[in-house]
Amino acid sequence: MTSAESSVSAIEQDNRPPARKASSFVGWIMSPERRGPLLIAPAIATLFLVNIFPLMWSFGLSFFEYKANRIAPPVFKGLTNYRDVLTDPEIWARFQNTALIVIGSVTLQLIVGFLLALLFAQEFPLRRYLLMLVLSPMMLSLSAVGVFFKLFYDPTLGFISRIISMFTTDTFVILSTPTRAIVAIVVADAWMWSPFVMLLVLAGLVSVPKYLYEAAEIDRAGWWRRFTTITFPYIRSLLLLALLFRTIETFKIFDIVYLLTEGGPGSSTETASVYVYRLAFQFFRTSQASAMGYIMVFAVIVLTSLYLYAIQSRRSEP
Amino acid sequence: MSREREVKAIGQAGWRRTFGAGIVSLAYFFPVFYIIMTAFKTRPDALAMPIKFLFTPTLENFYSVFVRADIQGGGGTNSGFGLYFFNSLFIGGTSVFLALIIGTSAAYGFSRFPLRGNDTYLFVILTTRMLPPIIAIIPIFVLFRIFGLSGSYTGVIALYTAFNLPFSIWMAKSFFDDLDRDIEDAARMDGSSEWSVFRKICLPQVYGGLAATFVFAVILTWNEFLFALMLTGTETRTVPVAIARTIGGQVGVDWGLLSAIETLFIIPVVIVTFLLQNQLLRGVTFGTIRK
Fold this sequence. Notes:
The complex is a heterodimer. Chain A is mostly helical.
């Protein structure tokens, strides 16, 4: 096949038969209409082998009674695992912990990130260097941040606990009360991810057409009015994206909790991910862990589709 | 692809804003700065209160990252951190390299030769990346044991390749989508083959973006904790796992030493953040948001 033929057929591949009948398997597989499938095949194969197949396997497992540390073959139990998981108050308590952390952390991130974005919206000397300082936390490892804050919250050595204990009489121990432990996690997580929100809000602020501000200047619109009628409509969609993205990510929170509190005190900061980890690798209740995991998967899939929907509708905005 | 090297701004402010933003930035960066500072302190300095900002820096902690002093004195034993840093780089580099080759080809396919249900494929691919890693690790842990892959480089690299693939595909696709199609069509009119359109026109234009994707994905892998915790063995352990094991003992944690490890672990990331500033938005949102 000449290159000219192939280029023509590539452009009109939808409504034109292949320029020449392929005579061999190689010709068949290399024909223009199989270009797309051929290009993505290696990716799909890899994902299927390493990701999707194991997931399907564990999805199947969630309908069986199975312990990964026993040789006993899986026994079919139908939906019992799901029923057990959904009616277990222990598990609802873990989801509640997760929800508390998600709500606290995402709200804090949105507020701090928004304020940081306003601060960095304009160009000023050394902006690029100062941005590096503010943006770097989100690029750090979640586990590194967990270790950082473990050091900062250390009752005798940590600078945060020592600063707090200057204002209170007793020494500050994060694991002493559930509220403290949750606040400690929220602060660490929000510190790390506020720059993410800031980056998205900045993108929104930059997209506001200048002439709108100039028009507002002429109309002598006040600061608040300019913000609500011009700025906010442009950053609203990005704020929503930030909210969804951070909710998905925070919902999965594992590393920081695992390193900072290990779920304690008691189980008051044990999040859904940490609990699934415990179920699967400490109690070896593999199938219950899978069942609980798939409830999380369902939530993530719903949130991800909402996120992509929000992306689509933002693109179709004028 | 935007040529600006910075995060965009609106309007102009003066040095007064620099001053205000400077204070906020330094406060925000303080936790990182504190760790780096502690890494250079001797044990008494690290424990001193109020926090010592003026001290004689020492490299002692960095030395003991790699060589653990013997209790009896004399020589020292290898702490293994040299190996762990090598593992982090090797596993990250190899898996991202593989993911980027597979991912770029797929991204080009998704971008230029859309299939029926193109968006569904892309959604499923993104979803595999958005799922809680703990869900993926349960079956993979069991299957890896069955196939004897746990603790081996092959297993970890295969897993991280799949882990980096959705990111690479979405990122590379976003770069291909940004290109101007007219040039390609003109080349096709002039009789270029599809291969040379890809090789000579599209690919050179996205090299910068692919390089950014590479570095980004290496950082994501470098930072990853849970998969590494579950699937690496003594020989293939990566830095985050080694750090977690260092603090695992609860009592007698040497914060100076730990800070030194953390410093070596995060400095490359901070530098890269600076260099990739204009790609950061795209990177942290997996290529879903460009501007």
